[in-house]
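Quick review question:
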């Protein structure tokens, strides 16, 4: 297995980016763009998912990475809850809700599996490589 050199190579980051790409444009159109609290919350959570994955990777420590991944996973949970609010308030169609929820659910499973892998590996990361 090749060593990942950049966070952009991580499948979980790529999936989080896709989720962001599909979500962010929705916040510029009615009715979401008029509900400032909802718009800011859904933007914030989807942004935190992708950002925490990148930040954790860049810390060069397995333990800090795992911590950041668990934060990202929590943000996915928040995002999914916001999708339900969007559906209930008729901001999202059932089809769009389903598409975004499925992507988010896949990401949750991917993060969970990756954390499990990291917990089992002896790799410490560059920060603690010689300790």
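Suggested answer, residue by residue:
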């Amino acid at each position: 297995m090749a060593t990942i050199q950049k966070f952009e190579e991580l499948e979980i980051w790529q999936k989080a980016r896709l989720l962001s790409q599909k979500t962010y444009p929705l916040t510029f159109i009615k009715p979401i763009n008029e509900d400032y609290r909802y718009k800011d919350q859904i933007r914030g959570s989807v942004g935190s998912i992708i950002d925490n994955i990148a930040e954790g990777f860049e810390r060069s420590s397995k333990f800090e990475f795992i911590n950041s991944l668990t934060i990202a996973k929590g943000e996915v949970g928040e995002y999914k809850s916001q999708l339900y609010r969007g559906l209930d308030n008729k901001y999202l169609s059932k089809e769009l809700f389903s598409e975004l929820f499925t992507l988010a659910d896949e990401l949750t499973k991917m993060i969970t599996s990756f954390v499990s892998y990291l917990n089992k590996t002896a790799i410490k990361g560059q920060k603690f490589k010689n300790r």
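Why it works: The helical segments are 11-23, 36-58, 62-88, 94-120. The chain has a mean pLDDT of 92.
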